[in-house]
Amino acid sequence: MLKGRKVYLREYRKEDIVLAHEYINDYEVKRMLVPGIPFPLRLEEEEKWYDSQSSSKDTYSFAIAKIEDNEYIGGCGINEVDWKNSVVTLGIFIAKKFWNEGYGTDAMRILLRFVFEQMNINRAKLNVYSFNRRAIRSYQKCGFRIEGTLRQEIFRDGSFHDEIIMGILKDEFGRNDQTSL
Questions:
Q1: pTM attached to this predicted model
Q2: Separation of alpha carbons 141 and 179, rounded Å
Q3: CB–CB of 110/98 below 8 Å?
Q4: 36-42: long-range contacts at Cβ-Cβ below 8 A with a sequence spacing of 24 or more?
Q5: Hey, what's the signal peptide range on this chain (predicted)?
Q6: Cα-flanking dihedrals φ and ψ of residue 81, to 5°?
Q7: What architecture (CATH level 2) is domain 2-126?
Q8: Is 9 exposed, middle or buried (0-12, 13-18, 19+ CB in 10 A)?
């Protein structure tokens, strides 16, 4: 178990599937995560994803749970590993009812600590849509920097939006009180 100030990261459990399905199908959550049409997933697709986790070699998925009551609130993980170049691509989602509580920032800090201290990775990156200001601020609190912009990469809610590429290096993580645990 990887522990932060507000949340801890743990393995996904079968009992998380129904809530994960509910959380990920919330339109506000979905529109922040997927480049395609934010169409709902079937429960069977969530179950299939859960079953595939044990066979994944270069992806690592964690459930996010609140320390105070062990409630499952979302997920995060390493979606891609480039071992040769020591780079990972990260992802995270928090259920809408837990937004603006600092849970996502805490979870990302824990995930970064795992990436840099346990996997010995040099660089972590992620992509975020320009309209997801809350996530951008959260990533910046963790030490991520904006590295590039894919202009008008995504069509959402009737207009085109940029996709922001953000990254953080191992030697940048934990340099100040904002990014360390």
A1: 0.90
A2: 6
A3: no
A4: none
A5: none
A6: -125, 130
A7: 3-Layer(aba) Sandwich (3.40)
A8: buried
pLDDT digits (tens, 9 = 90+) for 137-172: 999 999 999 999 999 999 999 999 999 999 999 999
The continuous run of DSSP H or E covering 97 comes out as none
pLDDT, tens digit (0-9, with 9 covering 90-100), for 46-85: 877 777 776 567 789 999 999 999 999 999 999 999 999 9
Handedness of CA 27, 126, 138, 91 (dihedral sign): positive
Helix (H, G, I), strand (E, B) or coil at 143: coil
| Cβ atoms of residues 50 and 41 within 8 Å | no
CA distance 70 to 97: 16
Beta pairing, strands 159-169 & 60-66: unpaired
- Domain boundary assignment for the chain: 2-126
